[in-house]
Known about the structure:
Elements: E1 4-6, E2 12-17, E3 20-24, E4 27-32, E5 61-67, H1 79-93, E6 97-104, E7 112-126, E8 135-142, E9 147-150, E10 156-160, E11 164-165, E12 170-172, E13 174-178, E14 189-193, E15 199-201, E16 206-209, E17 213-222, E18 228-237
Parallel strand pairs: 11-18
Antiparallel strand pairs: 1-4, 2-3, 2-6, 4-5, 5-8, 6-7, 7-8, 7-9, 10-13, 12-16, 14-17, 15-16, 17-18
Amino acid sequence: MSDDVTLVAGTYFEHLVNGVWKRIPRVTATGDTGSLAEAKEKTTTEDRIKRYSAGLRDGGDKNLKGQRIPLQVAGDEHYEDYLLQSEWIERCKNEEEMQMRATYPDLGSDDQRASFTFKALGYMVDDATAEDWKIFSVNGKQNSFVTWTPAPTLTAVALVGTGTLTVGTGEQLTVTNTPLDAYWEINQDTFVSDDNAVASVTKWGYVTGIGAGTCNVDVVRQVGDGTTVTDTIAVTVS
């Protein structure tokens, strides 16, 4: 029997880099040496073996599987995710010990976050999988018990960019959360320019200068419960 457990939709993995939690895109399954961990089951804390949403549990070896994002360049749809994923994979290749956490969507404000220490022991790509979006596997050890906390609710976002372009140039806008470690539904950002004759913006936030002038670019980020938060940045093109 396979020990892999497919993650529930919306599960959100991060690693701690110089005091900042960074998202790890496209982690799709967890494995645990031993018996399969049942989803959505919690035992008492006294037994120190907690089984919970999507199969990650206290103890022993860890195996994280995901979909490797192929090479992306600035302006590509998955460019930001490619950079985020590549940073974590490089740490795994270097067999670093790091703090990781996973946020599991549950019901409304009851989203739960599990934090633990992870010692990476290597990275491997399955070359027999799809030509571009190959499956990768990261093996390692869980070097701490899991700490459970509620996931903070997203209350606001900030759209970040230089706001200054020349005709024909572009930049990737980024979105930061308030609070910074708030959980949100992945891939639910919508970007809109109010004047495409001045600057256009792709659905993944890459803005390009089209003609001289000033316009506003908006982002709408969907929160887990279906509500939205928004922000606007002024873009000047010369």
